[in-house]
Amino acid sequence: MNGVLVVDKPAGLTSAAVVARVRRVLGVKRVGHTGTLDPMATGVLPVCVGEATKIAGYLLAEDKAYEGELELGVETDTLDAQGAITRRSEVAVTRAQLVAAMGDLAGDIEQVPPMYSALKQNGKRLHKLARQGIEVERAARPVHIAVFELIDFESPRARFRVECSKGTYVRSLASNLGTALGCGAHLTALRRTRSGAFDLAQAVALDAVSPERVVLVDPAQAVSYLPAATVPHDRQGRVRDGQQLPWADLFPDLAEIPGTMRLLTPAGALLALAEIDDGKLRYLRVFSYGLT
Fold this sequence. Notes:
Elements: E1 3-9, H1 15-26, E2 31-33, E3 42-49, H2 56-60, E4 64-72, E5 74-76, E6 85-88, H3 95-104, E7 107-111, E8 120-121, E9 124-125, H4 126-131, E10 141-154, E11 157-164, H5 170-181, E12 185-195, E13 198-199, E14 204-205, H6 219-222, E15 228-230, H7 233-240, H8 247-250, E16 261-264, E17 270-277, E18 280-286
Parallel strand pairs: 1-14, 3-12, 15-16
Antiparallel strand pairs: 1-3, 2-3, 4-11, 4-12, 5-6, 7-10, 8-9, 10-11, 12-13, 16-17, 17-18
């Protein structure tokens, strides 16, 4: 069993708990997710099964889309509704002011990761330090907010849509919006509607996952954004064994393709991920299934 299972994560579970349940239900040892969702959040969580765990890192790099809700005038220590309230303020914000402030946060911005996050500093999870009352300095990281738009506003609650790069904390974005408006804010609900090429239309409820009904996205399709070349039958074993092959000899009719690429069998199965290094293929990931 090899492929990507797109789960509609329910609220109240960690991403790790979703992975554990999929592993148990499907009876597969190698299972991993492709980007953490907070326990409060719901929505698209691609889960790699079997050999597809080798492509998890390539799925992490893709952009995400969310719909959520925030409340103005209330700040919490976790920046969302699961935290303790740290400040309350009066809210006198118009729809026009809200839209303008959201627009100012779109584009390339620097974002400081929240203390309540799974990031590590000096080998320790930030959220564990935060629960001990310890706050440490965190370096700001560049993220890209392609879309941050208002869906509906009934003060003090606002529903919104976000499209953003990997590593973006929507909790922090909501908090930054509250700071910009002078009244503070926290995230009250979040649903991921897309992760890279995977969207809610493909997602299945966690309770519906079973060996009999599981639908997996083929690994070759899951990374279809990468350019591809086909390996002839007589060369597949050499690729599988990690033997270096001259690029020009293997694909004489193709121009050099920069960056990471997919090597496929004639039947379209993913044989390897590779890049060109000094005229030869350098294998990044090699897969042991689907040789035809």
